[in-house]
Amino acid sequence: MHTSYLNNASADPQGQLLFDDAATTARRAAVDVLHARTAIYTASPVVDDLLKRLAWPDAASRLVDPSCGDGMFLARALDALLDARPAGFDPRGQIEGWEIHPAACIDARSRIAAVLVSHGWSPSRSSALANDMIHNRDFLTEGPTTPQWDIVAGNPPYLRAANVPELLRTEYSRHVPDYARGDMLHSFLERCSRTVRPAGRIGLVTADRWLFNDGASRLRERLGQRLSLAHAERLSAETAFYRPKQRRAGSPPRVHPVSVVLVSDAGAEQNLTRRPIHPGVDESRYEGMRLLGDFAEVRIAPWLGTEGVFVVDAATARGLPPECLVPAVDTDDIQNGKLGTPTRWAIRTHPGEEPCPEIMAHLGSRMHLMAKRGRQGKAWMPPESFHSLDLSRESLIVPRIAKTPKAVRVPPGVLPINHNLSIVAGSAATLDQVEDALAAPVAAEWARDYARRLENAYLSLTTTLLRRMPMANVPA
Q1: For the segment 328-346, what is each residue's pLDDT rounded down to a tens digit?
Q2: Could you tell me if 305 and 430 are in contact, meaning their C-beta atoms sit under 8 angstroms apart?
Q3: Which residues have C-beta within 8 Å of that of residue 96, sequence separation ≥ 6?
Q4: How many CB atoms neighbour CB 9 within 10 A?
Q5: Angle, to 10 degrees, between the axis of helix 44-53 and the axis of helix 72-83?
Q6: In sequence order, what DSSP letters do the residues of 366-427 get, joined into one string?
Q7: Taking a C-beta distance cutoff of 8 angstroms, is the pair 69, 155 a contact?
Q8: Residue limits of the Type II methyltransferase M.TaqI-like domain (predicted)?
Q9: How many structural domains are present in the chain?
C-alpha cells in the first residue's frame, strides 16, 4: 500500500490494514463507493483483440494499465509476453498496473501470480513479482504527467463527476484540467495522453459518449494536440464485460462500449478535433440529401411543470375559463401510432398580464405541488412558457425517447408538452413529406448512427439531430 493513500495505517499479522486516522477512513470509504460505481471488467476476447491492435508484445515496449481492476488486461498482456520470451524472463519493468481499490488490487496480483506460475515461476516468487508489478495507488493523483510508457491499455472508469464521491472529486480538481473533469473517463484519457511516449499507442475500452457529446468537444480538441485516432469500434454491451456495474449478475451494464486505439502523433491529419466521432458510420451514404431543418421548424415542446398546476385534467378544466385552456398531449396519448383525444389541458398565461381570478385562485391553491425547478419567475407563468407559440397549423410530435424517429400527427390548436419534439412545416404538403421521411428506413439508420443510445435499443432524439436528418424523399 502506498503511504500517501494510507496515512497512519498499520498491518495486523494477517496483512489486514488497521485504520486509526479519520481522514484515511473517509478516503477508504470514498474509494469503496467509487469502485462499486465503476467496476465493470472487460472480457478476455475483447482484451485480446485490443492487445493485438496495439501490436503487443512488441520488442522492449513498456505497457501500463492505469486502472487495472482485477487484472484481466495485465494478465492477458503478461501471458502473451511470456509466450514470446525465453523461460524465466522477468517481466518487471515491461508490464505495470495501477489500481486505487485495495481489494481489486489484491485480485489483480493474484491473477498475475497465477499467470507467472503457469509459466514456471514458483508461487512465492510469482507473488513477489506480482506485488512489484501492480501498485495500489491512484493514477489521477499520483500517476506521472510526462511520457513513461509505449502502450497504455485498459478499461478506465466511466462516471460523471457529479457521481464521484465529493472527497475524491475535490482531490481530482487539483490534478485534472477543467476540460477533463466532467467524467472520470475524461480525466483518465487526459492523463494517459500525457504519459504515453511519442509514437506510443493507447488502447482502451470506453463508454461511447466522449466521442460525440458536445460536452466533450473541448476534451477531444485538447487530446488532438497529442493524439490521432487509429481505430474506433462499437462493442456489444452484453458480451464485452463480465462484471456488470450495479446490476444483477448476467445483465448488461449501463454503458455502450467502444474499443478505441489512439496514437501519440501530434500534427497528423487524423488527429482528434472538436468534431464528433461516430464509430462505424459511413457518412458518405448521406451526402447530397436535403436536411429536415432546411424547410421545417423543429422545436422542443415546453415543460409546464408538475401535472395539476399548469396542466390539468378534464374535471379541473370544467371549472376554468375555456379561453385560457389549450388541449395538451404527451406520448401516453399515442396509441397504435395514432394520437387519441386529449385528456388534459394546459393553462395559457401571458407574462405581462395577470390572469383572471379563477386562474389565479387555481394556481394559488396548487402551486405547492410544483416541483422546485418549476417555481420561477412570475407566479402565474409556467416554467417554460408557450404563450407565443403559433398553434394554428397542424404539426407532428416525435417522442424524444424511441427506437425509431416516427412521427404522429397533431391537429391545429393542440399543444405537445414535456420536451417531446414538435415539427411544424410551412404547408400541409411539406408536413406530409416530413412525416414520410421520418418513417423511411434511412431515417431509422441515421438515428441508429448518430443518436445517443439508451437501454434496450432505445435512442435519445434531439432537436439538433432531427434538424440534421437527411430527407431521402426530397430532391436536393
Answers
A1: 999 999 988 889 999 999 9
A2: no
A3: 62, 63, 64, 65, 133, 134, 135, 149
A4: 16
A5: 60
A6: HGGGS-GGG--SSTTS-SS--TT---SS-EEEE-SEESS---EEE-TT-EE-TT-EEEEESS
A7: yes
A8: 135-221
A9: 2
**Do 446 and 301 have their domain in common?**
yes
Residues 401 and 453 in one domain: yes
Confidence of residue 4 (pLDDT cuts 50, 70, 90): very low
Q: pLDDT at residue 313 above 90?
A: yes
Task: Return the C-alpha cell found at 133.
Answer: 508489478
Interstrand relation of 311-313 and 452-453 (parallel, antiparallel or unpaired): unpaired
In a domain, 269, yes or no: no
At 145, is the secondary structure helix, strand, or coil?
coil
CA angle 445, 440, 300 (to 5 degrees): 80
Handedness of CA 158, 164, 170, 171 (dihedral sign): negative
Do the domain assignments include residue 298? yes
Number of other residues whose CB lies within 10 A of the CB of residue 40: 24
For residue 327, give its domain range. Answer: 291-471
Q: What pLDDT is recorded for position 285?
A: 86
* Amino acid present at 142: E
Identity (one letter) of the amino acid at 213? Answer: N
Q: Which helix (H) or strand (E) holds 8?
A: none
Residue environment code for 131-167, b if the CB has 16+ CB neighbours within 10 A, otherwise e? eebbbbbbbbbebeeeebbbbbbbbbbbbebeebbeb
> Which CATH number goes with the domain that contains 50?
3.40.50.150
Return the amino acid letter for 135. Answer: H
E-state strands within 210-351: 227-234, 257-264, 290-291, 296-300, 311-313, 325-329, 334-335, 338-339, 344-347
Instruction: Say which DSSP state 265 is in.
Output: -
- Tens digit of each residue's pLDDT (9 = 90 or more) over 181-191: 999 999 999 99
User: For residues 104 and 70, is the Cβ–Cβ distance under 8 A?
Assistant: yes
Residue from 203, 219, 191 nearest 261 by CA: 203
- Amino acid, single-letter form, for residue 119: H
